[in-house]
Write a structure and sequence with these properties.
seven-stranded mixed β-sheet, single chain, 8 helices, about 325 residues, alpha+beta, about 20% helix
Length: about 325
């Protein structure tokens, strides 16, 4: 790992928090205090929260690399806490907007077509189609690593969806595919939970524009576990070839790679930015691979423990209750 690498996190420890911290190996360094010791405070903000850091990404990112490098040269360069002694929160509390891509992994689309006895779908690019997203509310849905999440009482078929999350670090409007990733701060992990038994509204005609209930299916309390941190984009490696794996109680359910994305991360950013301005701290959940519960007829139960691993990023784990 390069000496300047770090992980950007939100943490709470003792009476403090949530605050921005950078994870170096098994320690966490408070961003605001570290920058104060370097005398690099800005007029915009001091980096007390991750949103403050992202809002000043061009200035903050090189400073945090400087802190990471100094910390690796000497463990006593900055005051730090043992990672095991703090509670990690969702890395962004709270994103301005959360965009979630639908039907965006080739293996997942093929799996669902088989499950519903439908013909294999063509590549959307060949039809001139663009990426498709829905929005999740931030405060209600976002939960952190290790949080226990109550399954919604109205659903008996809550499904898991492992996804790589793009976290924006620069404002972005009408970006090209070629420049889209230059607006990204880093990548993280989300679980885009879905209440599969509430996709359609009973008693409403299938061809009605009001047939689908996206709020009940996608936007219940705790519907987006997020974490454990943000890895700066240049520390991730090739974002188009990242392994992604989800297990339930240790049993692997999803095991794929971002090489199976239909619309790349850059294509998603470019399309969304053609419709509205993306802002620092906005999050794009880029789609889920094959292995969801819907194709298996298996759904989350109280007591289930779900872990999502993404290559070069880390592991997000949550337990579910009723």
């Amino acid at each position: 790992m390069p000496s300047t690498s770090y992980r950007l996190a939100s943490y709470a420890g003792g009476s403090a928090g949530p605050r921005a911290g950078i994870v170096i190996e098994d320690r966490i360094i408070d961003v605001e205090r570290a920058l104060a010791s370097l005398d690099t405070l800005t007029a915009v903000g001091r980096g007390a929260t991750v949103l403050e850091v992202l809002a000043q990404w061009d200035e903050m990112h090189p400073r945090l690399r400087q802190v990471a490098q100094a910390s690796r040269r000497s463990a006593n360069s900055f005051e730090s806490l043992a990672l095991e002694g703090v509670r990690l929160c969702a890395p962004v509390l709270y994103p301005g907007t959360i965009f979630c891509a639908g039907a965006n992994y080739r293996d997942h689309v093929a799996e669902m077509s088989r499950a519903m006895n439908l013909p294999e779908e063509p590549d959307p690019h060949s039809l001139g189609l663009k990426p498709w997203h829905f929005i999740k509310p931030s405060v209600a849905c976002v939960r952190g690593p290790g949080d226990r999440i109550a399954l919604p009482a109205y659903s008996k078929k809550v499904d898991w969806e492992a996804e790589i999350a793009v976290v924006m670090g620069r404002a972005c409007r009408n970006a090209s595919v070629e420049t889209a990733l230059s607006h990204v701060a880093g990548l993280s992990i989300v679980n885009d939970l879905s209440a599969r038994d509430h996709l359609r509204r009973a008693g409403v005609a299938p061809d009605s524009p009001f047939h689908f209930d996206w709020v009940s299916q996608k936007s219940f309390d705790g519907a987006l576990p997020f974490g454990p941190w943000i890895v700066p984009l240049e520390d991730v490696g090739d974002p188009s070839h990242l392994g992604i794996r989800l297990s339930v109680n240790g049993e692997v359910m999803q095991d794929s790679s971002s090489s199976n994305l239909i619309f790349s991360m850059a294509e998603q950013i470019a399309h969304l930015s053609s419709r509205l301005t993306l802002h620092p701290g906005d999050v794009i959940a880029t789609g889920t691979p094959a292995g969801c519960g819907a194709a298996r007829g298996r759904f989350l139960e109280p007591g289930d423990r779900v872990s999502i691993w993404v290559e070069n990023i880390g592991t997000l784990t949550n337990e579910f209750t009723r």
